[in-house]
From TrEMBL:
GO terms for biological process: branched-chain amino acid catabolic process. Residues 231-379 form the Acyl-CoA dehydrogenase/oxidase C-terminal domain. Residues 8-120 form the Acyl-CoA dehydrogenase/oxidase N-terminal domain. Gene3D superfamilies: Acyl-CoA dehydrogenase/oxidase, N-terminal domain (1.10.540.10), Butyryl-CoA Dehydrogenase, subunit A, domain 2 (2.40.110.10), Butyryl-CoA Dehydrogenase, subunit A, domain 3 (1.20.140.10). This is Acyl-CoA dehydrogenase. GO terms for molecular function: acyl-CoA dehydrogenase activity; flavin adenine dinucleotide binding. It comes from Nocardioides albidus. Pathway: Amino-acid degradation; L-valine degradation. It comes from the Bacteria. Belongs to the acyl-CoA dehydrogenase family. Residues 125-219 form the Acyl-CoA oxidase/dehydrogenase middle domain. Keywords: Branched-chain amino acid catabolism, FAD, Flavoprotein, Oxidoreductase.
Length: 381
């Protein structure tokens, strides 16, 4: 189905992203998998190409695109190479940077945003704790007042860019009595005394993205590190999570679509019983089914992207986009593995890695159960 949300400016931008991917990403994917991380050169090169500052105003080194469709184009093109790329990039540029851009003080913007846009300051976001991620309001990392300072103690886990990041927007309890109304966001630099991180976590998929635990032991910060308002952190996160979920949805569909297209090619070439396997009715009907599912998901996500670019996307529609796209992606990729036969289970085949990479998308950014909980509540249930 012809897509209608992108115009020639978006397509020209897509071409420049493709050029970056061909030159700076594709030749290095195996190195990234082995290193279990994206090297700093990736970030610096992306910064040079203007791919880290779409949401950052020009005065701080960004390009201030002002139209989420450009972010979506970038996410789509990175997803075609592998699911970890839009994840790491998205956490940095589309998920964490907006907290500083939209909630930061002038001093914070000047201190951090030029480095964020250039790739010299890599961002991560610390919400999830070892004790739980779904129930964000129950987080236990604390900040206690000490004169003009705050003393932070606690830990975060599963943090994307956690091993190599430089600055973490971190959700911390500043009032133990007030539940969700006692949470504040702090910008915590990795050089801060008392900050440390664990090893790169050993994941089932998404090897290229580094994921780590963060530890805070008497980390001393001041009000100058508060992002947004004191005790408003939970509200700030709720306001920003729809964009995070939409970004996930864009990647989910683009990633699955790419692997499906490669699988269709495979089904045309691979022979069994003297014929291409795609010509057997079962497989032909299956591929027809999968293409339809992807296009239906893509049409819904495109509408969400358009709404978001017009600032009308609701949190509930973002939740629907997130759970549905990750479910479709997982189903499609499971069938793609099956169509590859034994090769589909070999790590050297992209389809195998894509299938493993996709699994987490039903868990993170708010699990699919939490997404359905939000949608159900909106139904008055
Ligand atoms: C690779 C990876 C990268 C990540 N990156 C980040 C990051 O950068 N920053 C960050 O802060 N977090 C990150 N996360 C954490 C992720 O967001 C959490 O894992 C997720 O929110 C779920 O939290 P949890 O793991 O504590 O599971 P839990 O909250 O313990 O949930 C366990 C199960 O119970 C279900 N459940 C919980 N509550 C309900 C309910 N009310 N109704 C029905 N079912 C329920 C959940 O859906 C899940 O199936 C990442 C996770 C992974 C695996």
């Amino acid at each position: 189905m012809k897509r209608e949300i992108y115009d020639e400016d978006h397509e020209a931008f897509r071409a420049s992203v493709k050029e970056f991917v061909d030159r700076s990403v594709l030749p290095h994917t195996e190195e990234h998998i082995k290193a279990k991380a994206l090297p700093r050169e990736f970030w610096l090169e992306a910064g040079k190409q203007g791919l880290l500052g779409l949401c950052i105003p020009e005065e701080y080194g960004g390009s201030d695109a002002g139209d989420y469709r450009f972010n979506a184009v970038l996410q789509e093109e990175l997803s075609k190479v592998g699911a970890a790329y839009p994840t790491c990039h998205g956490i940095h540029a589309d998920i964490t940077a907006p907290y500083i851009v939209e909630l930061g003080t002038e001093e914070q913007k000047q201190r951090w945003l030029p480095g964020v846009a250039s790739g010299e300051i890599l961002l991560g976001i610390g919400m999830t704790e070892p004790g739980g991620g779904s129930d964000l309001a129950a987080l236990k990392t604390t900040a206690v007042r000490d004169g003009d300072s705050w003393i932070i103690n606690g830990s975060k886990t599963f943090i994307t860019n956690g091993y190599s990041g430089d600055l973490f927007v971190t959700a911390v309890r500043t009032d133990p009595e007030k539940g969700p109304k006692g949470i504040t966001l702090f910008g915590i630099e990795a050089t801060q005394e008392g900050f440390s991180r664990g090893r790169k976590l050993d994941k089932v998929g998404m090897e290229e993205s580094d994921t780590a635990e963060l530890f805070f032991e008497n980390v001393r910060v001041t009000d100058a590190e508060i992002i947004g308002e004191l005790n408003m952190g939970f509200i700030h996160m709720m306001e920003k999570l729809p964009q995070e979920r939409l970004g996930c949805a864009v990647s989910n569909v683009a990633h699955a679509k790419q692997i499906l297209l490669e699988t269709i090619d495979y089904a045309k070439e691979r022979q069994a019983f003297g014929a291409p396997i795609g010509t057997f009715q079962h497989n032909k009907f299956l591929l027809a089914d999968l293409v339809t599912r992807i296009e239906a998901a893509e049409a819904y996500i495109d509408k969400c992207v358009l709404n978001h670019s017009q600032k009308t996307l609701t949190a509930i529609d973002a939740a629907k986009a997130k759970w549905f796209s990750s479910q479709v992606q997982s189903e499609v990729l499971d069938h793609c593995v099956q169509l590859h036969g034994g090769y589909g289970f070999m790590n050297e085949y992209r389809v195998a890695r894509a299938w493993r990479d996709a699994r987490v998308t039903k868990i993170w950014a708010g699990s699919n159960e939490i997404m359905k909980e939000l949608i159900g509540r909106d139904l008055g249930l």
